[in-house]
Predict the structure.
Amino acid sequence: MAKIYYDNDADLAHLKGRRVGVIGFGSQGHAHALNLHDSGVEVAVGLYPGSSSWKKVEAAGLRVGTVDDVARDSEIIMMLVPDQVQKRVYEEHVAPHLDGGKTLMFAHGFNIHFGQIEPPEGVDVSMIAPKGPGHLVRRVYQQGGGVPALVAIHQDASESALQTALAYGKGIGSGRAGILETTFLEETETDLFGEQTILCGGITALIKAAFETLVEAGYQPESAYFETFHELKLIVDLLYEGGMEYMRYSISDTAEYGDYTRGPRVIDASVKARMQEILREIQDGRFAREWINENAVGRPHFSALRRINAEHPVEVIGKEVRGMMAWLNDGKRA
């Protein structure tokens, strides 16, 4: 059984008198910095000069400085810039200030697991990875709850890296929900697999295929959108709240019978075999090398894929249909 820690297992005293430097103020960065600050932790946010987030940090009442300054003056450094720029930011602005006795933290293990960042001996290297987007981490904290997180230790120079990481997890609210112990390897490989096969890649490919099937059969694009895209949230909410059983309890018997008898024909053994191949590509580093190389040459393939997918008919018709639903954008999307 996995080990799960809660607030009672963590002590914010491990952060007392130790400044936490949060590098980045994006989705996760703003949530971590604000939650830690509200938990009584001394926080500073590191940004590049001229960052558009600089004034936002100041308006939030937090200390802000360059990444170099924050890395130099902080004892605990949390890297919350995107994966593809972490290596450069680390090597140019963090590593020169990473003295022995400091703690280097991550919210995703990609750069450590695939050897892009190699911290020196003498520093603790750990992870607190909330299982939710930053806006949710912040909102749930303000409501008195927390988003579950993962904790992992890569390097324990001080022999107290876990206690520090758990204190950090408590500071952002995750100890209220539970912090599951894992490894950098497990977090990285399962995270990439989930994104590629279900959460992002799998579900968007399934939506496009279903939408195209209906439209090519002569059905109105708007009707196809409602049936293959819009109603997905209703089903996902039921799954999230009570699992498959609750979802099936909430739908019609007709829908439930179609679920049991037609679902396995769409997602059959051949799909699982391709998922296993995708997992192997993650495990042996092929995906990581592909993504690292793509960034190294200016991301031409990625940019083309982004453009092509933005122009897909389901996206075009989706914007029109969502325009009918003014409530969708009531302060929810930036």
Remarks:
- Residues 143 and 206 are 35 Å apart (CA to CA).
- The first strand starts at residue 4 and ends at 5.
- The mean pLDDT is 96.
- Residues 232-250 form the longest helix (19 residues).
